[in-house]
Amino acid sequence: MDELVIALDGPSGVGKSSTAKLVAQKLRLAYLDTGAMYRAVACEFARRGLERTDETGIGELARTADLRMTTNPDAPRVCINGRDVTEEIRKPEISAIVSAVAVVPEVRRVLTERMRRIIAEHDRRMVVEGRDITTVVAPDAEVRVLLTADAAARIGRRAAELGERADQVTVTDSILRRDHDDSTVSNFTEAACGVSVIDSTHLGLDEVVAEILKLVPDA
C-alpha cells in the first residue's frame, strides 16, 4: 500500500481527536494520539509525586517508562509501566499538570522519537494528531493540516465532552492556560509552509472530516 501519513495539529478543544479517529476509520489507517503520550507521562509524574521543577527526574521518567499505545481508532488505549491509564489521562487533575511535563525538552525529545518510531512501525499508514506534528514529528507527511477554532467554540466543545463533570471556569482555564503554556515550546496557531488550515468554528465533525479527505490523494 502507498504511504499515507496525515498530520493534524491544533490547540486544545479544537476537536483533533474526534476528527483524527474518524478520518482514520474512513481511510482504514492506524491512529496515534500524541497528546495521550504526554498525558500518560503526566500520570506517572503525579503517581511518583515528583516536583514540577525536577526536569531531570521528569526527563528520566520519560526515557525509562514502558509506554504502550494501541493504534486502533475504534478503541485507542494507553498504558504506562503496566497500568492502563486510558481513562485517568482525561481527568481534570491530569489536564492541569500535563503542560508542566510537556514543556520539558527531554520529554519532548524522547516522545518525539517514539512517535516517529510508531509511524514507521505502521509503514507510514497513520493519522497522527497533536501539537507540532506537521512541523516537528512528521513534517514529511503526505497531508498536513492545522485545525483551528475560536476560543468560545473550543471551550464549548470541551465542556460538552466532559458533560456533567464540566465546570465552566475550570474548562476555560484549562483551555486557555494550556494554550499559553504549550505555546512556549510549540507553534500550533500559525500554519507552516505547505500546511492547510481548516477553521472548524462553524463546521460540524463530518464537515471537518470531509475537508480533510479532499486533501488526500485519490481518497
From TrEMBL:
EC numbers: 2.7.4.25
Superkingdom assignment: Bacteria
Secretion signal span: none
Cytidylate kinase domain residues: 6-216
InterPro entries: Cytidylate_kin (IPR003136), Cytidylate_kinase_dom (IPR011994), P-loop_NTPase (IPR027417)
GO MF terms, alphabetically ordered: ATP binding; CMP kinase activity; dCMP kinase activity
Keyword Nucleus set for record: no
Matching Pfam families: Cytidylate_kin (PF02224)
One GO term of the biological process aspect: pyrimidine nucleotide metabolic process
Catalytic reactions of this protein: dCMP + ATP = dCDP + ADP; CMP + ATP = CDP + ADP
Keyword annotations from UniProtKB, A to Z: ATP-binding, Cytoplasm, Kinase, Nucleotide-binding, Transferase
Enzyme class of the recorded protein, top EC level: transferase
Binding site for ATP: G10, P11, S12, G13, V14, G15, K16, S17, S18
Gene Ontology annotations for the cellular component aspect, listed alphabetically: cytoplasm
Protein localization: Cytoplasm
NCBIfam families, per database record: cmk (TIGR00017)
Similarity comment: family membership: Belongs to the cytidylate kinase family. Type 1 subfamily.
Annotated HAMAP family: Cytidyl_kinase_type1
Protein name, UniProt field: Cytidylate kinase
Source species of the chain: Arachnia propionica
Lineage: Bacteria, Bacillati, Actinomycetota, Actinomycetes, Propionibacteriales
Gene behind this protein: cmk
